[in-house]
């Protein structure tokens, strides 16, 4: 695997490990990361075959730039220990844990991974998709500050969250947005990356692009995807656009011209040193700097 760990996480595509055609496509796709799914996209009777396909995929040493993440079944499920064996064989960049409820779930996974990966090279990502996770989200995110823990990313599981809460998935997502914002807030407090949930209607790319823009404005690093057709617009929308880059450069230049100042104005807009820091991050390619209306 050749990927730079500091690279962005804009487009993150789920690929069912049970689908050989989809697995074969991975090397041709421009997704920043791929989540190879052993959980909900794989029917119970397909689990064993999917695990074998997954191991064959990793054994072939795919030479592609995407980060490779395996979504396992819950460790306390009937498939948990076999999935962990597959992780041991595959050595992905990270393991995505489904149905996380409490910090204890993350710590249990951390301990289980320590048995097979003492050097802690394999990261942990957490699905935030249960009402309990929403109530415990601050404590879960705080593990991101623990350098000994592996936690690196929250993934919004909006389909499960809607199922378990009764939240209606309206096209404008107005009833989901408060939960999504909580995820962003907690992730930032824990220095975690955070990814928006999937858009199920993969044929409606206009609605999808609007959802991506909303997610970016909410502070998400990127979006989880279900279909290759969703990758290109995700990468474009979550990347800094030329207008944003030009504005950032103007801020950097203005402060360079007025080095002693704490606050200046550019075209009638107040600009403080905190904006300078944001602009510098944006120019450095850091997604945290992408604050736009
Ligand atoms: N990853 C990689 N390739 C994919 C893909 C994915 N997620 N989804 C579709 N493809 C491939 C198909 O295999 C097909 O390949 P082909 O051109 O070689 O035949 C091509 O893209 C076009 O696919 P299409 O016919 O438009 O869709 P489909 O009916 O094959 O699949 C879904 C539709 C929804 C079943 C499929 O996109 C999918 O399984 N998505 C992921 C679901 C998932 O993981 N859910 C769990 C998390 S929410
Ligand atoms: Mg789920």
UniProtKB/TrEMBL annotation:
Q: Which Gene3D superfamilies match?
A: Phosphoenolpyruvate-binding domains
Q: Does the keyword Lyase apply?
A: yes
The family annotation for this protein states:
Belongs to the HpcH/HpaI aldolase family.
Query: In this protein, which residues make up the domain named HpcH/HpaI aldolase/citrate lyase?
Result: 10-228
A single GO BP: oxaloacetate metabolic process
**Which protein are we looking at?**
CoA ester lyase
The cofactors named for this UniProt entry are: Mg(2+)
The GO molecular function terms of this record are: lyase activity; magnesium ion binding
Q: Which UniProt keywords apply?
A: Lyase, Magnesium, Metal-binding
The positions annotated for binding Mg(2+) are 129, 160
Q: Which Pfam families does this UniProt record tie to the protein?
A: HpcH_HpaI
Chain positions recorded as substrate binding sites: 71, 129
């Amino acid at each position: 695997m050749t990927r730079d760990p500091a690279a962005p996480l804009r487009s993150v595509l789920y690929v069912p490990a049970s689908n050989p055609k989809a697995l074969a496509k991975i090397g041709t796709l421009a997704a920043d990361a791929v989540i190879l799914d052993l959980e909900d996209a794989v029917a119970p009777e397909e689990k064993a075959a999917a695990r074998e396909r997954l191991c064959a995929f990793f054994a072939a040493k795919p030479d592609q730039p995407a980060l490779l993440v395996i979504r396992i079944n819950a460790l306390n499920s009937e498939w948990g220990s076999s999935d962990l064996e597959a992780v041991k064989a595959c050595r992905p960049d990270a393991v995505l844990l489904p149905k996380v409820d409490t910090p204890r779930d993350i710590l249990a996974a951390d301990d289980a991974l320590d048995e097979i990966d003492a050097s802690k090279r394999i990261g942990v990502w957490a699905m935030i998709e249960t009402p309990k996770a929403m109530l415990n989200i601050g404590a879960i995110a705080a593990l991101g500050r623990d350098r000994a823990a592996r936690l690196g990313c929250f993934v919004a599981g909006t389909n499960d969250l809607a199922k378990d809460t009764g939240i209606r998935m309206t096209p404008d997502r107005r009833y989901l947005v408060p939960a999504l914002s909580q995820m962003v807030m907690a992730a930032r407090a824990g220095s975690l990356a955070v990814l928006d949930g999937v858009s199920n209607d993969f044929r409606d790319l206009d609605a999808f692009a609007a959802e991506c823009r909303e997610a970016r404005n909410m502070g998400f690093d990127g979006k989880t995807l279900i279909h290759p057709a969703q990758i290109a617009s995700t990468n474009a929308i979550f990347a800094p656009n030329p207008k944003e880059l030009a504005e950032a450069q103007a801020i950097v230049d203005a402060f360079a011209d007025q080095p002693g100042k704490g606050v200046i104005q550019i075209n009638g807009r107040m600009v403080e040193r905190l904006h300078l820091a944001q602009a510098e991050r944006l120019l450095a390619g850091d997604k945290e700097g992408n604050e736009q209306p």
